[in-house]
Amino acid sequence: MSDVQPMRSGRPGLSIGVRVIAVVVLVAIGAVAAWLQRDGSGRSEQPRTEFTASNPPAGLPAGLTTGQHIRWTRCTSPPTARTDYDCATMKAPLDYRKPDGRTIDVALIRRKATGPNNRRIGSLVLNFGGPGVSGVSGLPELINQYEHLLDRYDLVSFDPRGVGATIPVRCGKTAHDTGYEGGDACAEHSGALLPYVGTSHTARDLDLLRYLLGDQRLHYFGVSYGTALGADYAHLYPSHVGRLVLEAPVDPTEDFDEKKLSQVKAVQAAFDRFAAHCADRIRHCPTGSGPEEAARRMARLADRLEKKPAPAGGGKTLDADDLAYAVSDHLDRGTDGWAPLAKALTALIDHNDGRPLNKGSDTIGSADRAATAPDNSRAALTAITCADSSLRPDFARLDKDEARIKAASPVFGAAWSTGIYLCYDWPFDGERATPQVDADGAAPVLVVGGTGDPTTPYPGARHMARALGERVGVLLTAEEEGHGSYPQNRCVMKTVDHYLRTGRSPAVGTVCRGSMS
């Protein structure tokens, strides 16, 4: 409703007719004012109440907490955010052990809540995966998945340290090059930043962001790598945990190489399920009569592409490793990706046309494909991963792990095995082999795992829920193919949304049926 109300004249001596005309005019003015206050959807905008938190992060100077205010302005980039979004920067310490020292600017983006002001819960901070994925670019690209939550939350995202506009890591030939030329190039161009881009540092940024957004507790939705960040936050600040959703969680009990092995087994199993479906349901299935035949055909295709990559459009080509990653990206989409994958493989096998497979490949949230993105994703992926992981195996261990990964998957093993060398020559030590995520005393954290997830295998979801602690980690199981099940699975969406809107988590052992049921 409009706050503009028709006013009665207190001036004496006016006739009844004049008073009636005056009231009519004023009512009309009020109606126009109310119309002007309505947004494009026809809902009236009430005066917005800004929230204030009373629990700033401990140990930080007042200039960064009570003396700092986020100044939101209309976004100028990315182009998809130029309408309906606000952008800002937040000052944070480069090194939280020296909070009075150098500061950095953390890039932020917001879509303001559209629901009634008196029903707004606060801000929901989103991280879409990676590491190396920009939240400033990601929010407008993925808003359709979360837009319905605007009735209760401002939706907020950010570029984590090392990514996008937040102290971007540079590992190219020059200081302004977004390419990746190895650890030495990273040290040359970004050496002063590399010790401070790990997940635990970004988790501390999250708590400062929570306070400046005016929330007593952090409400957060993290996907894939975003679950590592959310779990790290819960461990560091259990009393500040609000409503945290960790979807498609990474396994906190596995080190970097163990994750690679588990992942390659999971993506191979997902491909085998696709191949069985293709043989049974798709005419002229490009992978043949089932999983065994599919592995042989894919091996022949990979050999062909290794000798001569296929054209993939836009001057790009598709080699054997590209084939594995592109197929994986289709599998990440669950059963929705199966029919397009069959068509794309047919085009590649029969016509040497890599365009359909390349077009259907998605780099959002896919760490292994980050090298193809036109930003600093590959550099950020490497820097954050190596800042987190203390694993620096010698060549004997590397050779052994490479052989194990290759043997675990006839389709994906060769491509995945090269990932174990990511940090072998990194110029700085990493923080830990596996993270601490126990969060005793925190509010319930909702962990959502899919039984057919090819990128973050389902056992990791069970391990995450257990590691968060008794009465903290609450596991919601989705019997679904694909990397993540929100909002595609209606049961998952309904359960997660209920938790985010009420704070009430589902019963222990809740299972949502889906494509694998």
From TrEMBL:
Keyword Ribosomal protein attached: no
One Pfam family from the record: Abhydrolase_1
Region described as Disordered: spans on this chain: 39-65
Highest taxon of the lineage: Bacteria
Cleavable signal peptide: none
Residues covered by the AB hydrolase-1 domain: 124-279
Domain Peptidase S33 tripeptidyl aminopeptidase-like C-terminal span(s) in chain numbering: 409-512
Assigned keywords, A-Z: Hydrolase, Membrane, Signal, Transmembrane, Transmembrane helix
InterPro entries for this protein: AB_hydrolase_1, AB_hydrolase_fold, Pept_S33_TAP-like_C, Serine_prot/Carboxylest_S33
GO terms of molecular function: hydrolase activity
Membrane-crossing segments per the record: 16-36
PANTHER family: 2-SUCCINYL-6-HYDROXY-2,4-CYCLOHEXADIENE-1-CARBOXYLATE SYNTHASE, TRIPEPTIDYL AMINOPEPTIDASE
Similarity section: Belongs to the peptidase S33 family.
Protein name, entry field: Alpha/beta fold hydrolase
